[in-house]
Structures are given as structure tokens and as C-alpha cells.
Design goal:
single chain; 2 domains; 48 strands
């Protein structure tokens, strides 16, 4: 980095480093030159640092003053003087040319003796942490009940992926974003029309992803990224922070942060192409209105259609996302309305394997063993609103409400592998289903001081309701071969009548937490409790409630987290936190038939250290997660919650800029998943299914000096071998995937333009992607992605 602030004495070592870098720079010119600038709205000191990096110029500035000011977003071709004029407008600062570059100083013609404070008429409901160096991840994000926290003050392992990463990697769906995380693996490949994840060795369903902090609003199958500003990942159980996940996910939490209108008007059009012939047009428009620009509107819309890289597979997507917000002095409000229709033909699914069958090599990834007449047609409309009001300077009340209506119609084949030679069978099925959800939260958060302790308490009451209806039908068995597909005709499966309601789920909870800090926030302790109630009713075909399937239980779940931050750059943290799942009901064949078990508790113990080098940050964590499971005692025939899967792991995460113009993102996850206390001890000590021992990611970007605005990208993924079954008799081998890409940002006239290109699975490797949920999935074949974006 060549930009440098006027630093305090204790930071002179950093100043010397920056000075040496500036002297070695070959980018300082005697005349003004234009550079392609892309700087987000943020604090003025961070904006000037970003300008110095992007322009290659040495810019000195008073950090103590600049850190208190805000700078607007700026994008396009500008000289350094022009860019600084925009960033410094209204700040009381001005620019001077120096032999070493530029210096930002107080404007002597400014009427005030001292630099005035920025007068902000209103503020956003979420003043999101700024982007970290390189712009691919943020400096922090929402930590559920605890609200937004900076990464160095977060006593958990978390990463927030930005809209810049989403755009630069041409991410279409949530899985395309989370592929960057070494702790996460996708269950399904790109183009499958569905998302599902494995975090720290445990399944996390797409419908357990939150939208702006609420369950039941995000798309159930696959989340389009058109209206998403950031994707926030919190690793590990999180019952206190977010409550029980509706689908019972244990391994982590995912929160989708919607886009909001920025300070500057936006008119962006993106045209894209994906193998084999998918074409898409995406419009992104934003405006702010009102005398103080309090009202914001942002609209994203996409239409795409075409063949995927897999033979016979086609996908069509129509989606729109509307985001509104009001930024007042004491009152803030935001609302979202989303619609998504996705129609996929011959979409991939899990391949189940018969017991005792050895798994052969993965089939040709470009060939499809799902018939072309299979389809999945889903519609979802969802909405959410959130508001908060400042009672006083230190106390705020807030509330949120959201929900969705989802329905789909499908004709599917679920295959079972019968031999290592690839023989398979299926029973085609047709289904119509609906899922309606409604969720809400109200709470109050505040700040107060007792003696040497600063308190940040929060109280929250939340509720979630889901109603599900399903109308299924099936056909006769059909047979084929994984390596030599045998076509068979489309079956005629009639579904008669309306879709009957099959279940209702209600999740209610109340949570209380307090973060206590002392020694200027160098020591922080978070204590919290959540009381969670789970009510589930099942219904028969006539709509009558089944008393034998009624569930009404509750559980109290605690959390303790501690963070010690001896310096601004170093944090140590540790936590104990739980996840909750609906407990089982003993079946009619069990000796304790009908017994209802309380929600089961998964427990995490984690410790870690975070270090921020300024432009490059790392996190190292160690964790243990124990998830209970129900087993039937072979001697007593009683169902008991005595089984257990225990995952222990070490994670190393890295992000940021290692040197000027070079960004890295990735890390290493080493996980030991072990089965303990299994039925009759038959699988005690075995490796847990679908838990690779090693997962490694490394993505890199290089802004080339020979052509300003031109960036080369590359990414490598490694996943260790995985067992399919608990007996450890069936497994799939490890795999590596290599991606490359490039992008070029320039200005045509006055229009900023970015062209992007990516090749995923460069060497067109055939491999088994995942063994999650007792089924196999195939990795996507080599895929080419191209796009062009222009801001008019």
C-alpha cells in the first residue's frame, strides 16, 4: 500500500514501512494520470487508503481527522486530483501536490478553526461494517441477537462475503458464494437448481438460511443473488443468537443481507452467458429521495434461460427483488419484496447406494442420468419489514416481520445404485407441495455502565410458523445404468384433488443476553439464555390432527463467550454455545411407543485467535461439536437419545491483500468426525459420513501492472475422501478443482464497464462431489461464465 496517514508515535514503524513502499513505487508521475477507481462509501481514511492503492500514488493525510469523516462512493476513470476532490468535498480538507506525491491538509480558506463534525440527518437501520482490504469480505457483520459486530470483537468464527465478490465471481446462487469457504462444501453442484451445504461436517439446508435476520423468508430451493448485498456465515451451533433453525441445521448459520440504495444513483445492466447456452439480463436500479435523502429504493430484476453444461438439463429463472428504506434521526425502517420462479428440467439429485455395494468411478459429468422429461417448477413470493426506534441515546426498540408463500410441482426420479458396474433403479414420482411461513421478532437493546463494566444488553421475543401441504404420487420401477443410460418413457402419474395440509410447526422463544466489557473493551464477556418452545402437529389425508404425532416441548439453552483483545490487531476468543433440534417420537414398534423427547441439544466448545495485519487477516480456531442422535437399544427395544456424532476440528482462515494488488481468500479445515455411542456399539469409533478430514481453499486475484483495470483470478479447491455409510464400507475419493478467470474494468465515454470471464473445473475432471445425507452427487463439468456490466 502506498497511501499513508499522519500517524501517532506508537505507529511510526508502520509509517516507515509505508514510506519505503512509496519510495520503491514506480507509479509516481510528475503529471496527473487517470486510474480506474472503484471505492465504496466508507470512512474517509479508508477511502484515501483505497485510492492510494488503486492509483499507485503516495497520499499522506491526517488519520485522526479523516477517520471521523465519511466519504462517498466513487467509480470510474479519474486523476488522483479529481478523485480526491470528490472524496474531500465538504470535509474542510484540501489537497497539495508534493515531491513525494500528495498531501491532504486542512483548507486554510475554510471558515472554521477546527474540522467540523459530519452532520448526518439520518442513519441506516444497519450501518454495516465496511469492506476489508480487497473488498471481498467485510470487517464484520450481524451476529444474530448481538447485532452487528466488528470481526475483531466477535467471539465466534464468522465471515461476510460482499457484493463485490458476488459480482466478480459471477455468483448466480448462494452455493456459488459459499464455495469460497474452506469450512463449507456444497451438496449439489452449480446448475442443479438447489442449494444445500455441509458446514463443519453437518448439513445446513438452504431453507434454514435467514433473510435479514428472519427465518422463513429466503428461497427454499436455491437463493438468487440479484438482490443480496452480503452473505454472512457464522460457523457452528447458534441457538442463542438465532433460535432453533426450522430444518434443524446444526453446523452454522447463513444470513442474506439485502441490497439498499446508496448515496449515489445507480443504473446498472449486466448481460451474462453460462455454458451451454444460458443467457441472462440483470438490471439493478437505485435512487434516494427526500430533502435529506431519507427514502431509498433499490430494484433488481433478472431473466435467464437456456441449457446448462449437463446434457438435457435446462433452467429458466425470473426473479425480482425490491428493497425500500427510510433513514431517520431516531426512526429507521426497511422493507423487502421478492419474487422468484425457477423451472429446471433434468436437474441433478442425490444418487443413493444399496447396502454393501462398492462405489465405482464418477460418471461423465456432462452426461445426465436424469431423464430430460423430469422437472421442478417452483414459485415463491416473500416479504419482510424491519424497524427500530431510539427511545434515548442508549436504548433502542426494534421489530421485524416476514414470511413467504412457496409452491412447487415436480416429476422426479430418485435413483438407487445397485452395483459397482452402475446398474440402477428408480421409481418416478410426481409431487405438488406448498409451504407457507410467517416469522417475527421484537426486542430492545441498550447500553449502560456499572462501575468498571460497560453493558450491552438485549432482550428478544421471536416466533415462527410454517404450514406444509403435499400431494404425492409414484409410478412403477424403472431401470438404467449410470455409465450407459437407457432411456425410458415419461410415466403418466395423475394427482387428483387439492393439496392437503400435512403439518404445522410453531417455534417460539425468548432470549436475553448481555455483553460486558472492561479495560476499554479489551476484555469482553457475553452471557445469554434462550428459552425455546417447539410445537409440531401432523395431519392425515382428511385434515384431522394425528394425536400420535403431536409434539410440544421446550428447552433452555445457555451461551458463554469471552473475548480478550490485548491490542487492536490481536483477539483471543472462546465460546460455549448450543444448537437445538426437535426431539424424536418413539414409533409404534418401540417398547416406549409414543414417548415424546425434549428438543435435542448439540454442544459446541470453541477457542480461537484472530490477527489483523492491516490489509491481511487470519483466524485460527479449534472446535468440538457433539450432536446427539436417537438409537433403539437392541436388548430393550426402547428408543433412546444416546447416540452421538462428535466433530473435532482446526480451521485456518485468511483474507485480504498480501501485497499491493494481490488478494487472497481461503484457508484450511481439518475435521475429525467420529461416531460414538452407536447402536450396540457396532460403529463406535468410525468416521462420520460426509465429513472430509481435509478441506482446502485458495483463491487469488492479481491486478496486472501492464494494463490498468485488468485482473487475473484463480482458485483451487481440495476435499478429502468421504464415507457414505456409518459402517465405513462405502466411500468416495478426494478431489481437486481448479478455476481461472479474468476481468477488465474501464470507462467507455463516461460509462464504467466491467467485463468478466471465468472457467470453473478447468481440466473438466469427473468426480463425486459429496456423500451428504447418505447420497452421492456429481461435480459440475467444465463451465464457462462470461458477463459484461455497465453503469449508465
Amino acid at each position: 500500500m502506498t497511501a499513508r496517514p499522519h500517524l501517532q508515535p506508537h505507529r511510526r514503524a508502520r509509517l516507515r514501512q509505508l514510506s519505503i513502499a512509496a519510495l520503491l513505487s514506480i507509479s509516481i508521475h510528475a503529471h496527473a494520470v487517470s486510474a480506474n477507481v472503484d471505492i465504496a462509501a466508507q470512512s474517509l481514511d479508508q477511502a484515501i487508503l483505497a485510492l492510494g492503492k488503486q492509483s499507485g500514488e503516495n497520499i499522506a493525510f491526517p488519520s485522526d481527522l479523516a477517520s471521523k469523516l465519511k466519504a462517498p462512493a466513487i467509480k470510474g476513470n479519474y486523476s488522483v486530483e479529481q478523485a480526491l476532490d470528490i472524496l474531500l468535498k465538504g470535509s474542510g480538507l484540501t489537497t497539495q501536490k508534493t515531491p513525494a506525491g500528495y498531501s491532504v491538509v486542512k483548507d486554510v480558506e475554510h471558515k472554521t478553526e477546527t474540522l467540523p463534525e459530519v452532520q448526518v440527518k439520518g442513519k441506516a437501520i444497519q450501518d454495516k461494517p465496511t469492506e476489508y482490504a480487497g473488498g471481498q469480505v467485510a470487517r464484520g457483520g450481524k451476529v444474530g441477537l448481538l447485532g452487528d459486530k466488528e470481526m475483531m470483537d466477535t467471539p465466534f468464527s464468522a465471515t461476510q462475503y460482499t457484493s463485490k465478490l458476488i459480482a466478480d465471481q459471477q455468483a448466480q446462487n448462494l452455493g456459488d458464494v459459499l464455495v469460497n469457504d474452506p469450512s463449507i462444501r456444497n451438496t449439489y453442484s452449480r446448475g442443479s437448481g438447489r442449494d444445500e451445504f455441509n458446514i463443519r461436517g453437518f448439513t445446513v439446508f438452504n431453507y434454514d438460511a435467514m433473510f435479514n435476520g428472519l427465518y422463513g423468508v429466503s428461497p427454499r430451493d436455491s437463493s438468487s443473488m440479484i438482490g443480496i448485498e452480503r452473505v454472512e456465515v457464522l460457523r457452528g451451533p447458534n441457538a442463542l443468537l438465532n433460535g432453533i433453525a426450522p430444518g434443524g441445521s446444526v453446523g452454522g448459520a447463513i444470513n442474506l443481507v439485502p441490497k439498499r440504495a446508496g448515496d449515489q444513483p445507480l443504473n446498472r445492466m449486466t448481460l451474462s452467458f453460462i455454458d451451454d447456452s444460458q443467457l441472462a439480463a440483470h438490471a439493478d436500479v437505485a435512487r434516494r429521495y427526500g430533502g435529506d435523502q431519507q427514502f431509498g429504493v433499490r430494484i433488481n430484476a433478472i431473466k435467464s434461460s437456456g441449457d446448462t453444461p449437463v446434457d438435457g438439463s435446462k433452467e429458466r429463472l425470473d426473479a425480482i427483488a425490491i428493497g425500500l428504506d427510510f433513514q431517520g434521526e431516531r426512526f429507521r425502517w426497511e422493507g423487502d419484496l421478492n419474487y422468484q420462479n425457477r423451472l429446471t428440467y433434468a436437474r441433478s439429485g442425490l444418487l443413493f447406494v444399496a447396502s454393501g455395494v462398492q462405489i465405482g468411478s464418477a460418471p461423465d459429468a456432462s452426461r445426465n442420468y436424469f431423464p430430460s422429461w423430469t422437472y421442478w417448477d417452483s414459485n415463491q413470493i416473500s416479504g419482510a419489514t424491519r424497524a427500530e426506534f431510539d427511545l434515548t441515546t442508549n436504548w433502542t426498540v426494534y421489530g421485524a416481520l416476514g414470511g413467504s408463500e412457496y409452491d412447487f410441482s415436480s416429476l422426479q426420479t430418485s435413483w438407487q445404485l445397485l452395483s459397482q458396474q452402475g446398474d440402477m433403479r428408480t421409481r418416478p414420482s410426481r409431487t405438488k407441495q406448498y409451504v407457507n411461513t410467517l416469522s417475527g421478532e421484537v426486542g430492545v437493546r441498550g447500553k449502560f455502565v456499572t462501575g468498571a463494566l460497560d453493558h450491552a444488553p438485549v432482550l428478544s421475543v421471536s416466533s415462527y410458523f410454517m404450514e406444509t401441504g403435499s400431494l404425492p404420487g409414484s409410478s412403477v420401477l424403472s431401470f438404467s445404468n449410470l455409465y450407459a443410460m437407457q432411456d425410458f418413457g415419461k410415466p403418466g402419474i395423475a394427482l387428483v384433488g387439492n393439496i392437503p395440509k400435512v403439518s404445522e410447526t410453531r417455534l417460539r422463544s425468548i432470549a436475553l443476553a448481555d455483553t460486558m466489557a472492561m479495560l476499554d473493551n479489551k476484555v469482553q464477556l457475553t452471557l445469554g439464555l434462550r428459552h425455546q418452545e417447539v410445537i409440531v402437529n401432523s395431519f392425515d389425508a382428511a385434515g384431522n390432527r394425528r394425536l400420535d404425532q403431536h409434539y410440544d416441548e421446550s428447552k433452555l439453552t445457555p451461551t458463554v463467550a469471552v473475548l480478550v483483545r490485548p491490542t487492536e490487531q490481536l483477539s483471543f476468543y472462546a465460546n460455549y454455545i448450543e444448537a437445538l433440534n426437535q426431539g424424536p417420537i418413539a414409533s409404534s414398534t418401540a417398547a416406549n411407543a409414543g414417548q415424546v423427547f425434549a428438543p435435542t441439544v448439540s454442544k459446541q466448545r470453541e477457542a480461537g485467535v484472530k490477527y489483523d495485519f492491516g490489509r491481511f487477516a487470519t483466524t485460527v480456531s479449534m472446535f468440538e461439536i457433539e450432536r446427539p442422535s436417537a438409537i433403539t437399544d437392541p436388548n430393550t427395544l426402547r428408543l433412546e437419545v444416546n447416540g452421538k456424532q462428535r466433530n473435532r476440528g482446526v480451521e485456518f482462515l485468511m483474507q485480504g491483500e498480501v501485497v499491493d494488488n494481490v488478494r487472497v481468500l481461503g484457508g484450511l479445515a481439518l475435521t475429525d468426525g467420529e461416531l460414538v455411542k452407536t447402536a450396540a456399539g457396532s460403529n463406535d469409533g468410525n468416521t462420520a459420513p460426509a465429513v472430509p478430514r481435509q478441506q482446502f481453499n485458495l483463491a487469488a486475484e492479481w491486478d496486472t501492472p501492464m494494463l490498468p483495470g485488468f485482473t487475473l483470478t484463480a482458485r483451487m479447491l481440495h476435499t478429502g475422501e468421504q464415507y457414505l455409510d456409518a459402517a465405513n464400507t462405502q466411500k468416495i475419493p478426494s478431489w481437486n478443482r481448479y478455476d481461472i478467470g479474468a476481468r477488465y474494468a474501464f470507462t467507455s465515454g463516461k460509462v464504467p464497464v466491467t467485463i468478466r470471464g471465468t472457467i470453473e473445473n478447468l481440466f473438466d475432471k469427473n468426480y463425486w462431489l459429496s456423500a451428504a445425507r447418505e447420497g452421492l452427487s456429481v461435480g459440475a463439468p467444465r463451465t464457462v461464465l462470461l458477463s459484461v456490466s455497465a453503469d449508465f
